[in-house]
């Protein structure tokens, strides 16, 4: 009969230290990953009392799920539940050899792409047998998700970026009209500075007050289009209807761009699949103002004609898109699935379009001669 410490193919250690988004480590001081943790002995004893071999459970996540199904006493007994969670987490680490433990502050087992809270997993195993097959399918796809993530990370590290070509005359934002908005108590809302670096209240993430504060973005969009038309060789088509203004900019070289402005937001589409929005999020927690949203809009709209847009699609088996945007100061990258509203034929057209670019970089628009 195997001892508890011998049930898993690696040393059993104590839990790693709790981590948070604000935590960091000095170079060379990264903690050693923990693959298997201690503290599951009570569950091992329980399984043996129930006539089950813990060694068989430790090597098979599907068998563990079958064993736990309907055993409500496991989650009704706190100590046993905690022990079962540690056992289940170790089984996850067996099933996916790249997975490690982390405390966030929940106990989780995962990689950079996925992380499973183990106490919640045990409850689902006990109470929801219908989730077993979808979970097993997720486990089967996990290694590929990690591989795709590594491919996306490699794209982000690509240092072969083009030299941006900006006009000699810089863009100047138009003067926005003074705006004053008040909360339900009659106090003036200082958008952009509401939380003073602190954490916004939970309810503000689902609340959107005064979306009309973004109406000046229409002015900004109009000014940006006029600036680009004066600076680059580009045809501009302007359409206006039902409170919406849409500009389609077709340059002599580089990525076509469409800017759609309403009194509440501005949407930008460019290249094959690129999408951006200003504000990026209008909820009260994000606390965007017209000025912060305009700054984001200008970064995007000015970077694309300068040759700062890179699109790579498809990446990995999940067929995600990778986007890089170079700006005057700094660069950013993102990855994820393309717009779900795009048809299969539209996605294949994007593949064909991007195949003709140099490592996905769209060329700069042609500057007008002064």
Describe the fold and architecture.
With 370 residues, the chain is of the alpha+beta class. 33% of the residues lie in helices and 18% in strands. It has helices at residues 41-49, 54-58, 61-68, 72-76, 78-95, 118-127, 132-156, 216-231, 290-303, 344-355; strands spanning 12-13, 36-37, 100-103, 107-110, 115-117, 234-241, 244-251, 257-261, 266-270, 274-278, 309-315, 320-326, 331-336. The strands form four sheets. The chain has a five-stranded antiparallel β-sheet with strand order 6-7-8-9-10, covered by helices on one side. It has a three-stranded antiparallel β-sheet with strand order 3-4-5. It has a three-stranded antiparallel β-sheet with strand order 11-12-13. Strand 12 and strand 13 (331-336) form a beta hairpin. Helix 5 crosses helix 6. The N and C termini lie far apart (85 Å). The model is unreliable at 20-29 (pLDDT under 50).
Structure class: alpha+beta
Element string (H = helix, E = strand):
EEHHHHHEEEHHHEEEEEHEEEH
Report the β-strand fraction as a percent range: 15-25%
Distance between the termini: 85 Å
| Model regions low in confidence, pLDDT < 50 over at least 5 residues | 20-29
Helical proportion, percent range: 25-40%
Number of strands: 13
